[in-house]
Amino acid sequence: MASTSLFLPTTAGAAAAATARRYPFFSHRSHSHVPSTRLRRAPRLVAVSAATSPASSSLDALIFDCDGVILESENLHRQAYNDAFAHFGVRCPPASADPLCWDEAFYDELQNRIGGGKPKMRWYFGENGWPSSKIFETPPSTDSDKEKLVDIIQDWKTERYKEIIKSGTVEPRPGVLQLMDEVKGAGIKLAVCSAATKSSVIMCLENLIGLERFNGLDCFLAVQPGRKSKKKTPEPEVHSQEQHHSSCSPSSASHLQGDDVKLKKPDPTIYITAAEKLGVESKNCLVVEDSVIGLLAAKGAGMSCVITYTPSTASQDFTDAIATYPDLSNVRLEDLKLLLRKTLVTG
């Protein structure tokens, strides 16, 4: 199979330079040289006395990201893309003997730089040449044909990803279900805010955390995808804009309805909207994320954030997180309450 290598743009044009200035954390880092200070477990906290912990410093809502937090999804998405490329005979460059195959190292860099499946493909095909395929025997040349190609591949990939999740071979990351149950049992509000496609997130949550927990969420926000207009397609940008689907209701049906939020993480809108719908102050929310993109979104919304990193995000700079964990297996609700209380009291 044709393979890819790490050759993401570093100096290509003003747009890339602007992106680098806005998101300096996207510089390449080797996973074999992860600074130990970034992989530390949070130190055991000293309890804060009631005299220094007013009600305004309480934890009122815990908000989970989905991909990377509730499940390690990077390799699953990569597998689904490669299956789609093989299914449609996608050859990029067109003269390649074998279908396109994104290797693990390349995809780690790609998914940490460019948000959304369609922007990933638009950027890759733009850099390496639009491919030949069973969809278009010769590479598409018009904007409408390029969009059709991307749409068809993405739709098939999404269905393939759902099949992988439904296969029963995928499990939640350690400690997730226990922490969710603790939160609900304590009467604290629980939410999931994801930048992934709405239908994929719903399917993941129903299969991984179960219908009862999913229906019990106090708030759920995810991407509400839409087809591109027939206007000229802009060049894909890092973390391109998409819509988010939102719902704050205990019923499954109402999870499929709601308002839209226009900007993806690292824009903070998704978390600001969650706080509004939950009826709590941002400072009394705690977000669980796995990447700097999510961390920036949480901080931009005025929320504290803990990180549970994955192999593909472990080398990122999590200085602004109030705690960093390899997973949630040893994290309890009381730990998080004390963490937030200490953070708010000390400022």
Description:
The chain is an alpha/beta fold and 347 residues long. The protein has eleven helices and eight strands. An eight-stranded mixed sheet has the order 5-4-3-2-1-6-7-8, with helices on both faces. Residues 228-261 are annotated as: Disordered. Pfam families: Hydrolase. Residues 232-245 have a biased composition (Basic and acidic residues). This is Haloacid dehalogenase-like hydrolase domain-containing protein.
> If strands are numbered along the chain, what order do they take across the biggest sheet?
5-4-3-2-1-6-7-8
**Which percent bin holds the helix content?**
25-40%
The biggest beta sheet is recorded as: 8 strands, mixed
Radius of gyration: 21 Å
Low-pLDDT runs = 5-53, 227-245, 249-259
- Per DSSP, the total helix count is 11
Task: Provide the residue-averaged pLDDT.
Answer: 80
**What is the CA–CA distance across the termini?**
53 Å
Which band does the percent of strand residues land in? Answer: 5-15%
Number of strands: 8
Give the SSE string. HEHHHHHEHHEEEHEHEEH
Choose one word for the global shape: elongated
Key structural traits:
347 residues; alpha/beta; 11% strand
What's the gist of this structure?
Residues 228-261 are annotated as: Disordered. With 347 residues, the chain is α/β, with parallel strands linked by helices.
